[in-house]
Amino acid sequence: MHADLKSLHFSMEGLKEMYPVIIALDPPPGKGWEWAFDIASKLKGKVKAFKVGWPLLLEGNRVEELKEYGPVIADLKLADIGATMIKVVKRVEADAFIAHAFVGYEGALKELREELEGKKLYLVASMSHPGSVHFIDKHWREFLLLAYLVADGLVAPATRTSVLREIRKYWSKEIISPGIGAQGARPCEALRAGADYEIVGRSVTLSEDPAKTLEEMYSCLKG
Amino acid sequence: MHADLKSLHFSMEGLKEMYPVIIALDPPPGKGWEWAFDIASKLKGKVKAFKVGWPLLLEGNRVEELKEYGPVIADLKLADIGATMIKVVKRVEADAFIAHAFVGYEGALKELREELEGKKLYLVASMSHPGSVHFIDKHWREFLLLAYLVADGLVAPATRTSVLREIRKYWSKEIISPGIGAQGARPCEALRAGADYEIVGRSVTLSEDPAKTLEEMYSCLKG
Question: Which of A121, A186, B114, B199 has its CA 20 to 30 A from that of A71?
Fold first, then answer.
């Protein structure tokens, strides 16, 4: 169900080196949309998508403009009642949204799924930080059952590939994986464990030359 | 540990009818901050606090201005890794924040608590929608243990007072309770079950005369 890395890279070369990477555009203090547009312009066509979250949205609701550079995933970690999540997604022009599975179905993800007709919904199956084991990781099997009902993809961490590998056994659709670089996982580590795309933030976005850094990080695809 | 309703109302009369209520300013389609300021101006001094969430923040980051009308609780349902939650709360000038307990301690709530030094942190112990029972409600006892470490208050639903009553047995600090009105619970129902403040949204904010509606709804305090 998951292409091996060499064939993935081969097909990517045909697509002008599009890496199996999603870039997280979380701005450092004092930075906002101009910072995000600058990085996105340098990576246009080279990555699968751009991921934005609340830190950037608090600097203004300009997702529509970012879509000029590639698909946009709104990583809002939605975890509220359905009526509130709907009020949020109606106001954000993203191609895909990330919500928490733990918020449950009735009165929450059921209503969100209906509202997102035609857009992609990812659910968080497990997270990249240590505290994910306290509650979230205890439920990933039940989250998968819920995901079969409502989700197009899952989020599972590069920092705990044992969980990622387990999830991949039961989930044939898309898996995207955060935790590469600043959070400790190495490039290609999640891809090798079954992820379709790795989510990279600070390692690329805070580097002098984002495109060059990306290319260097993903030399692992050729290994 | 919790004052009875008559004495609560008596002390409120001394304070010019301040109701034990927090007003949720979630804007209907097409409305934004001017709508919120208008309602807040009509309820200034009559309610404990105003609660804002992502739907309003997507219309602009103007929490600072709202503080002219009363304390502001940012109900962001924070549920991300620590580094991201910190980027969010640094950008929102609220007096208090609501986060999910579900996200766990290390790498998440621990870091958030340190960042919020001097501000209030509420954790969600249970939610008002039916789907809360799938995962969240299974863990409220463990959430309380976590709350003892990091929280000033808890959020527990008016729609399931059995859970609220149980939580009150083990938690002496503040409990705020959503679900009154549009979501089905009646005014004073959560107060009677042990909440300190009820969170009211649409019933008041969509009414012709918010102050009069509030007064009518909370005639239950005199009963």
Answer: A186
Q: Under CATH, to which class is B5-207 assigned?
A: alpha beta
Report the alpha-carbon distance of residue A38 to residue A209 in Å, rounded: 11
Residue A165: pLDDT over 90 = yes
Total count of residues recorded for chain A: 223
Supply φ then ψ for residue B3, to 5 degrees: -60, 145
Q: Indicate yes or no: CB of A136 within 8 angstroms of CB of B104.
A: yes
Strand, helix or coil for residue B155: strand
CA distance linking residue B2 with residue B198, whole number of Å: 14
Taking the CA of residue A51 and the nearest CA in chain B, the distance in Å comes to 13
Query: What ipTM, to 2 d.p.?
Result: 0.91
3-state secondary structure of B111: helix
Spell out the domain ranges in chain B. Answer: 5-207
Give the pLDDT score at B10: 47
Rounded CA separation B122/A195 (Å)? 35
Of A58, A87, A107, the CB nearest to B129: A107
Q: How many residue pairs from chains A and B have C-beta atoms closer than 8 A? A: 140
CATH topology of domain A5-204: TIM Barrel (3.20.20)
- Residue B38 known to bind ligand: no
